[in-house]
Queue: 2 jobs
Job 1
Amino acid sequence: MKLHPYIGRFAPSPTGPLHLGSLVAAMASYLDAKVHGGTWLVRVEDVDRDRNVAGADQHILSSLQRCGMQWDGDVTWQLQRQDLYEAALRQLGENIYPCACSRREIADSQLRLGQAGQPNLVYPGTCRQGLAPGRTARALRLRTPQQPHCIIRFHDRFAGDISQDITAEVGDFVIRRADGFWAYQLAVVVDDGAQGITDIVRGADLLDSTPRQIFLQQLLGLPQPRYLHVPVVVNADGEKLSKQTGAQAFDTGAPAESLLGSALLPAARLLGLAIQAETIDAFWRAAVPAWDAVLRAHGESPHRP
């Protein structure tokens, strides 16, 4: 059987410098590409212009290089790919409808339907049959099948078999936001398809989004990548380490070799890699077989062309 070439990616948002949590995701995706003898791409997900921080993209790219991670090919930016998202929107056609609901109105509807307090609130379908008189469209939503329900099943290389009833657990979801920006779900699917991504390695906080992305892949006729979601890094309060929870940059401009002890080795430990190294080059020489061993412990036999 001929195996398709491995193409992976790391797709950071330029909302600030990389922190330890994002380094863990970058390291896992980089090592997975190396173990499979594949290609590792970097894509800057800057589609949310309101959250972008000037210069953050270049800081991220510099940090990756200073950590010894070099991508293949050219870096891509989502803001340069707007035509692709427009084309996908046209392809989705009647599966899309305008929605006039504000967050407050959706919350009120959910309260009336008895959904308040549930972890995953479902859009009630207020605008599914058209906008009420005098209402102005805010966002665009994607219809999910009602009868039968849209149930997506897939295998995650770490989490195992996953199933989600999108109709019951998510409902019709946004693909273009009220502020006019493209929603993450659409942009990431279009980008992964355009770049031929075969394997997606990222944090487990995105595991719940994967069924929606697979549904979009099916509608757009795109191949489904393999998925691997690594555990997210949390702070002392048990919150996901992120810029919103005060995560600090690991790269403060000190000599690159200092990143070995302050960033690379801690990130490796969080991935379950037992590595001892005195230089960055030695770290990566040890990290690739260590990741290979982690995959084999999960029942995989990584393929090297």
Job 2
Amino acid sequence: MSDYHNATTEQWLQWDKDHIWHPYSSMLNPVEMIPVVSAKGVRLTLADGTELIDGMSSWWSAIHGYNHPALNAAATAQLSDMSHVMFGGITHPAAATLGKRLVDLTPAALTKVFISDSGSVAVEVAIKMALQYWYSIGKQHKTRLLALRNGYHGDTFGAMATCDPVTGMHHLFNKVLPSHIFVESPRTAFGDTASDADMAAITTALKEHHQELAAVIVEPIVQGAGGMKFYSGDYLRRLRALCDEYDVLLIHDEIATGFGRTGKLFACEHAEISPDIMCLGKALTGGYLSLAATLCSDRIAEGICNGEAGVFMHGPTFMGNPLACSIANASIDLLLASDWQANIQRIESILREELSHAAPLSSVANVRCLGAIGVIELKDNVDMTSIQARFIDKGIWMRPFGKLVYTMPPYIIGDQDLTQLCRSIVAAVAEEE
């Protein structure tokens, strides 16, 4: 029998290779995994002692970095009381406090909170809210969704059906997914006024299909895993008006953009609008535990609860987990206690200056930055194995995909580390030439 508790690095790496699925990975030809044994601040420590500056915030979630004393303290304090208790028929201070704080922080129209256990589930909940709302008020024919090309909303089935059928990575399942309606993504750049031509596709779709549409779902301002595209707040303002005109709900997926990443606490603030339903996740717990929330308006909640079922038909086992909720409250404390807006502006300034040096490279199609997001878009897909090896050689951790080499660093990253991160990124891209 294996000595599970005293395995060497080589042993547990082999176990991983033999048995463990990683995101979007092959079990027939697995890539070599990078063995991380600890993390602190903005650095990941590998099994051989190598330290890497983390440019990904663990997929955009670890906004305060790793091993933060305030978040550690919150976890320890909650563990001494209870790590989990069912949420059916029971409540606790951490969840009640988190719900109130999210209502206070998000747009005023969002007053009700469903706390779940992952971003993808938050999207599933949002879709179910929209569908059950229309069913409950007697409009059972409103069952389809309208989404944007280049959008990405998660890997579970309801969420997959709203991702771009091509760039959303889920085309293999098209025959079994619900059929929704897609329109071209906005072309108007962030900061610019949306033209009638840019609004034409979504305006036409709403006009032609509003009788069957339950909701429009979008990632506000930043389309994430579908292409790292930044678009106009004016587009969102006009979309909000269109949804009102045609009596279609608006869902904002703020899982990647929430909690300051774009320079506003929530990306919808760039447009000064409120969705009917908002999804939150990722940075909610500062990257410590999986937790998500779906917020909705009184209109949605009352419509659902006045309907046939009388209740909203969803309830995960780990809903409202006390440990995760306590850490989320501490993470929000940390963010709001800081001058986070000035800090995001600092990060954006360095990203713009340093990543601009990639623009003249022949392999680079575009360089763009917004808030604490920096993107180098290449003309061709990266060779993941070779470029990631170069990143590690240069002392940084990055996870590109497709044609995109992007960074979303932790908010606590210092100027020197951020400059080193950016220069290493540009150097690695240059070596791809």
